[in-house]
Specification:
heterodimer, A: alpha+beta, three-stranded antiparallel beta sheet, two-stranded antiparallel ribbon, 3 helices, B: alpha/beta, nine-stranded mixed beta sheet, 13 helices, 13% strand
Chain lengths: 95, 363
């Protein structure tokens, strides 16, 4: 049995097997589907989750979002950490 | 009436046939026979109608859904239609080849039931010799195939003392999620209530065990917990409200607001064989009877929780009070709540009677 995965800048996140990012056209929203769960993504969470491709590291994701939004890196890092740790604890995200 | 939102999830009960005979089975007492079951074509049409309405998740259940040889065809059809596919199974009919076919068909997730942490109790409660050992073997095959796994544990007075062991077993078998559900007393479970009802002390101990395990296992496994509402202060938000998020199709095609709804014998339910699914959802008498809050009497009607718990469970109100429109007696505000608590305490204090096992024709 694995230990709890903690997000760090070197983490390479991807959606866990058995979960999926999907646009819900009937309700006009982005969702992550998971076992008996459905997470509606706000715009920030969507920007993060759609970059979790199992290739980009947290460092790369944060750099890209900081550049895109011209925002302080530490603010973006905190958002990314919060979203990813929450999803990792729910076993929705693999790190 | 407010605008009706489309359902999020469909429980597809493919069959009532099952090799197990659990005495708390959620199927109705009047089990449907194989000859009444929807055909593959009828199911694929119903799945298409569900997807077109906005359903996002489909749960294939039963009975034991793996007795249907077309299960993988239905999974593939739902998957191709964009639905998230989940299989709820006792597992005893699965082998490596069938699991591979389910994965190949596009199965997203699987829920495997266990009746106890050891073979004696597991086989006795499930009424199926050798079932427990087979389930452990199947759990390993499921994980070896890479499928994410939920352990489904229905708990009651005859297995609650093994709750720690059940959680340990789930971790050992690499489950991602554990669903610990106290028995809900409808149908078969209502009939076996005295054999299943825990004492309040057993319930409190179980809740403490779950709370501690959640803390200890944070980030390693997700634990969902459903409490027995006879001892509750406020009722559960049953199905998230009648006809709000969820629909159920029975093996013969009856469309239900929840899997126990047929226990409300004053209602009649439409079939996907006769009427389009969306029309049933939006316009049928059964779905509109308890939708929203207009139907409520006091104390629900003026309660500030009426859109939180939606009056609790209609089936329970009917089972206990004979009136499906009454406030769920699980609610402390119901004038009948103390009677419900006394029923539970009396059952829990009695010597457990033998199980009346769930069997087709056992009525």
């Amino acid at each position: 049995m694995s230990e709890r995965a903690l997000v760090g800048e070197a983490s390479v996140p991807r959606l866990a097997r058995g979960t999926r990012l999907q646009f819900d056209k009937h309700r006009d929203q982005w969702i992550v589907q998971a076992p008996e769960r459905l997470f509606v993504l706000d715009p920030i969470a969507l920007e993060i989750v759609q970059r979790c491709d199992g290739i980009a590291s947290v460092t790369a994701i944060v750099d890209e979002l900081a550049a895109k939004y011209n925002a302080p890196r530490e603010v973006i890092l905190r958002d990314v950490n919060n979203v990813l740790q929450d999803f990792a604890d729910k076993r929705v995200m693999s790190l | 009436m407010n605008q009706v939102s489309p359902p999020l999830a469909l429980l597809a009960e493919l069959t009532h046939r099952c090799p197990l005979q659990c005495p708390y089975c959620s199927n109705p007492l009047a089990l449907e026979r194989a000859s009444q079951e929807l055909t593959t074509a009828e199911w694929t049409r119903a799945i298409d109608e569900a997807a077109a309405m906005g359903v996002l998740q489909i749960h294939f259940s039963g009975g034991e859904p793996t007795v249907r040889p077309d299960l993988e065809d239905l999974i593939r059809h739902a998957h191709d239609g964009g639905l998230y596919t989940n299989l709820i199974t006792a597992g005893v009919l699965l082998d490596e080849r069938r699991i591979a076919r389910l994965v190949e068909a596009g199965l997203d997730h699987l829920q495997l039931s266990f009746q106890d942490s050891e073979p004696g109790g597991g086989d006795r409660i499930g009424g199926f010799k050798g079932g427990h050992a087979k389930k452990i073997e199947v759990a390993r095959l499921i994980r070896a195939a890479g499928l994410p796994l939920t352990f489904n544990l229905v708990v009651h007075r005859q297995n609650l003392h093994h709750l720690e062991d059940l959680i340990a077993m789930a971790l050992d078998l690499d489950a991602h999620r554990i669903e610990i559900a106290h028995v809900q007393y409808y149908g078969w479970a209502f009939r076996n209530r005295a054999a299943l009802m825990p004492t309040r002390e057993q319930l409190d101990a179980a809740t403490a065990t779950v709370t501690a395990a959640r803390e200890r296992l944070k980030g390693r496994v997700v634990i969902d917990y459903v409490v027995p509402d006879y001892y509750a202060r406020r009722p559960k938000s049953c199905m998230g409200g009648w006809g709000r998020q969820f629909l159920n199709i029975s093996p013969a095609g009856k469309v239900l607001p929840c899997h126990a709804a047929e226990s409300v014998t004053t209602l009649s339910f439409d079939s996907v064989r006769q009427r389009p699914l969306a029309d049933i959802w939006l316009h049928s008498e059964a779905f509109n009877r308890f939708r929203g809050t207009e139907w409520m009497a006091e104390p629900c009607r003026s309660c500030d929780r009426r859109e939180i718990d939606w009056g609790g469970c209609r089936c329970q109100a009917f089972a206990i009070l004979g009136d499906a429109a009454a406030t769920d007696p699980a609610c402390g505000l119901s004038p009948h709540h103390e009677d419900l608590v006394r029923l539970a305490e009396t059952d829990a204090a009695s010597e457990a009677p033998p199980f009346e096992y769930r069997r087709i024709g056992a009525r």
